[in-house]
Amino acid sequence: WSGSLILKLSKTRASPLKLVVTSATLDGEKFSQYFDECPVLNVPGRCFPVSIAHTLEQPDSYAEEVVNICIDLHCGSPPGDVLIFMTGQDEIDKCVKKVNERICQMAA
């Protein structure tokens, strides 16, 4: 993103621009200085136990492998959450659809 673009857009609007920036790693004070000493809110984070898993081989289809892993975790692990990083909204939508289809097939 370009901070100068945001500032330029804010000057062309009739109402003042309101920008909310969230980040776990951002230097809030640096941003505050850049944006004319705007207020910074710090919300303490919480840590949760995390397990990281990697595949041994490069899958033929990343999306299909994500679906398989989600189903395997859902069926073979205690309740919990899964965080998967994907490249875009289209890929996310396809995987969600495939997971839902597979869950429905399993329930039938």
Automatic annotation (TrEMBL):
One of its GO terms (molecular function) is helicase activity. This is RNA helicase. It comes from Pyramimonas obovata.
